[in-house]
Amino acid sequence: MPPSSLRVVYAFAREMHPKTSDVFIEYGTAGFRTKANLLEHVVYRMGLLAVIRSRVKNGRTIGMMITASHNLEPDNGVKLVDPDGEMLEESWESIATTLANVSDNDLEKTVQEIIATEKADMALKASVFIGMDTRYTSPRLAAAAANGVIALKGTPKEFGIVTTPMLHFFVKCRNDNTYGTPTEEGYYEKIVGAFKNIRKRLPARGDYNPRLYVDGANGVGGKKLKAIKKNLTELELELFNLGGVGEKLNLGCGADHVKVTQSPPKGITHPPFQRVASVDGDGDRIVYYYLDEQQKMYLLDGDRIATLIASYIQELLQACNATDISLGIVQTAYANGASTKYIQETLKVPVEFVKTGVKHLHHAAKTYDIGVYFEANGHGTVLYSDKAKKTINRISQEGDPTERKAAQLFLDFIDLTNETVGDAISDLFIVEAILCARGWSAVQWMELYDDLPCRQLKVTVKDRSVIKTTDAERICSEPEELQLKINELVAKYTNGRSFARPSGTEDIVRVYAEAETRQQADLLAAEVAQAVFDLAGGAGTRPELPAAPEL
Ligand code: 16G
Ligand code: MG
Q1: Same domain, 286 and 325
Q2: Is residue 178 a part of any domain in this protein?
Q3: What global pTM score does this model have?
Q4: Mean per-residue pLDDT, 244-258
Q5: Domain span holding position 368
Q6: Per the structure, how many domains does the chain have?
Q7: First vs last Cα of the chain: how many Å apart?
Q8: Is 307 exposed, middle or buried (CB count within 10 Å of its CB: 0-12, 13-18, 19+)?
Q9: Are residues 76 and 48 in the same domain?
Q10: CATH of the domain at 398
């Protein structure tokens, strides 16, 4: 592009999407995320960057998703999706951060530097897919994104309101047409179609009840399930928190609320033992729960989903006699110790730990023929290697009749999976298909193992970067005395485990603790929170200890 036309770009940027704030903003765990009113210039500039990235990738399509996931309504965010539908390559995160923070005057120079350093051929075509969540600030930001794309002569395609995983899926399909069709219909056809195929092979049986209640977090996931429900006879969906008048996104509801507070969402009533699935605001996380007659809550989180899926895949592999396919599970420090023990001792499947954040889990899961990854918070999926797909495909044609039947079912499970990223809708159908296959109620699913009670707390410190971690965030390497103190506290409790890590999305330190009883887990978490406050520069009020349990 000749420099004169680029000049127009920067004049336009200053005019239409000026940088109005000096607050430093960083491309974090899941892109930029902050108050929506600080984001317009950031999103415009990410439009520019997406075009450059598309050209660096030979004109393949890049995705841009406008969302702040489970954050409350006033926030928003943007993240880029790479051509294979995965999260933006880590080395580009710092490029994105630089571009987002330069002054309007330095924008031109910075863009040209990126183009030169990354050797982008600006004569190539560039294509960018844009999606947004249901926030009222999203349309304005999506328009700024499209303006950025157009400014560098890329072609934007706007999908309107879609879940984050749908956008990832569209990008993957656009660049690899064997994966599916890059439209909302194409997504339903593949994912819901696979579920219908599975249910044809596996009619409801045993204690499986096809009635499922869903908490839609007042976001996009619930809305899409409402559309799916119209043509779905295999599941009886009862949908709640669909974002009606006065219903606020993620407020007191959604997967994050249910997982962190360990309490049911508001706006939903259901009979005892009824399975409820709770998705998050942009539809990339899911947890299940049910209540007993005394209203005691039983949470089936990402760890439970991972173990359910892995145990079923193990069964399918055995039924297909696919002995040379390796299966592995990836977890983070937040995984309940009981789930890890179950994976190692009962399933006897290798388990690996990585840092929090989908990109780390996704990357590690790719090293297995079949890699199951889940964060305890309900974000996860299954990755099937080409080797696994080819082997199962071959068995579906050449195996003996039992093997063929198992392999055909397995192929539907692969189609049911959105392999680009964790997907609440795809995961919901996977869980339902497995429960149906086993004839299980949620109670039977819960009986696989007993969770250790756990608690999460937040601590405010002056500078959270003083805390450094190692060993997949399970050990605090700095300040040194903090880990010594955590060891000392943990040693007091049966089956105690605790860690502290700086959040990648909020200006706080997160503390996690688990122990043999609820009271002990609560106390250990509070004690570690106090230690963080005392040894890592606490700010504001010192966390309080709950009443001491009997040890
Ligand atoms: C983001 C991550 C999620 C992670 C969470 C941790 C993606 C798509 N999302 O939401 O995986 O669990 O951040 O937040 O990567 P934290 O660093 O504030 O605890
Ligand atoms: Mg989300």
Answers
A1: no
A2: no
A3: 0.95
A4: 95
A5: 302-418+440-446
A6: 4
A7: 71
A8: buried
A9: yes
A10: 3.40.120.10
What is the CA angle 392-394-398, rounded to 5?
120
Question: 């219909």: which residue's tokens?
Answer: 185
Task: List pLDDT tens digits, range 433-461.
Answer: 999 999 999 999 999 999 999 999 999 99
CA of 294 to the centre of ligand 1 (A): 33
- Ligand 1 interacting residues, C-beta cut-off 6 A: 29-30, 69, 356-358, 375, 377, 379, 503-506, 510
The residue from 4, 5, 21, 69 that is catalytic is 69
Both 27 and 120 in one domain: the answer is: yes
Q: How far is CA 138 from CA 13, 134, 144, 154, 536, in A?
A: 19, 7, 10, 21, 37
Final residue belonging to a domain, choices 281, 299, 317: 299
Best CA proximity match to 129, nearest among 185, 68, 78, 174:
174
Examine the domain organization and report whether 8 and 152 are in the same domain: yes
- Cα-based distances in Å from 418 to 180, 392, 412, 475: 11, 18, 12, 32
346 is in an annotated binding site: no
Max CA separation in the chain (angstroms): 75
Residue 288 and residue 311 in one domain: no
* CATH code, domain with 272: 3.40.120
**377 token code pair:** 């918070």
- Give distance in angstroms: CA of 281 to centre of ligand 2: 6
Question: The domain spanning residue 491 has which CATH number?
Answer: 3.30.310.50
Question: pLDDT, tens digit, for every residue of 360-382?
Answer: 999 999 999 999 999 999 999 99
Helix boundaries (H) for 418-515: 424-438, 442-446, 480-490
Residue length, the chain? 551
Q: Is the same domain home to 378 and 484?
A: no
Residue 69 annotated among the catalytic residues of the structure: yes
Full DSSP string of 172-231: HHHH-TTS--SSHHHHHHHHHHHHHHHHHHS---TT---EEEEE-TTSHHHHHHHHHHTT
Q: What is the pLDDT of residue 11?
A: 79
Q: If 0-12 CB within 10 Å is exposed, 13-18 middle and 19+ buried, where does residue 315 land?
A: middle
Residue 167 included in any domain: no
Any long-range contacts for 112-121 (C-beta under 8 Å, 24+ apart)? 112/6, 114/49, 114/52, 115/52, 118/52, 118/56, 119/56, 120/52, 120/55, 120/56, 121/55
